[in-house]
Amino acid sequence: MKNFKIGDKLTRFPLIQGGMGVGISLGRLAGTVAKEGGIGIISTAQIGFKDQDFGKNPMAANLRAIHSELKKAREKEPQGLLGFNIMVATKEYASYVKEAVKAGADVIISGAGLPVDLPEYVTGTDTKIAPIVSSEKAARIILKMWDRRYKRTADFVVIEGAHAGGHLGFSREELNHLYEPDYEANYDDEIRRIIACVHEYGEKYGVHIPVITAGGIMNARQVQHAFALGAEGVQVATPFVTTEECDAAPAYKQAYVNAKKEDIEIVTSPVGMPGRAIHNAFLEKVAKQKEHITHCFRCLEKCNPTQAPYCITQALIRAVEGDVENGLIFCGDNVQYLDHIGTVEEVVHALFPES
Fold first, then answer.
1. Taken in order 278, 59, 91, 17, is the CA torsion positive or negative?
2. Angle at 213 between CA 155 and CA 342, to 5 degrees
3. CA–CA distances in Å: residue 34 to residues 20, 80, 136, 225, 348
4. How confident is residue 353, by pLDDT bands cut at 50, 70 and 90?
5. Which residue in 25, 210, 69 sits closest to 129, CA to CA?
6. Is pLDDT at 38 greater than 90 in this prediction?
7. What is the model's pLDDT at position 354?
8. CA-closest candidate to residue 223, choices 32, 15, 79
């Protein structure tokens, strides 16, 4: 297999490990993926939650952790690249991007909103940038704005489908059609349209813009299908949770192993976005009664603590630290097929067995 190229940066595999917060994909997981030759991604979502000052000043703790987690990842001696997933919905989004650039990120990937101003924050640096999109409409809006405002285009583009975990770029109505017989074929056509749109801007700027697909990918057959559609790489997240190298607590990983198809549900996050998670006592509790929020960790721009059904920061921290019955466990809809705790190397080999 040829090296995968983003601009002048090379990796061994056309593989991005998806960013997972809070605390699921930190330096250890991302560093190991990069060591294997992929692109390891650290999530900045409340990345500094282990810092002793996190409760008092979460922003300062998070900015410090961007540096320490990337340093930890680089100690794995990567053959691939390292970077960050930074949600547009994050409060102080620009500060996180600038800090990631300052820390030395190879790439920054942004979704959970339209990253229309992302180029401004990386101007004059070698950090490569990519939006996460789920539709041709979103791709065209972003690339058109980058073209008009900044006279540049994306270095790569990630297409995230509706089988992904965490916050989703689809409405509940759209998600209701996910398992209908013609859904996959229709979305394949949408992927082709997005790729065609990206190629338009690549031609305009005389550059090659790789397109990566994501959402529910966990085996070589799905990787080959992505390639057949015209994608040049895949982003994979959920299968990396059940690895020894994942930064989450053992109980969190075991919750994935134990999950069955009927345990997966679509939830509404405190900011109104749909997301996919594993059913547990916590989701039953907050469905009946609003959780009392005593402290705001200033994570998401549109979250109002007085109206939110629960604090998403606290719910995600409880889960990642192992309190899986009282926390929020985001997952992709392929979680039902994960049956053991393996290694990053095993996941990579399952995706690219011929390498």
1. negative
2. 115
3. 16, 4, 30, 24, 11
4. very high
5. 210
6. yes
7. 83
8. 15
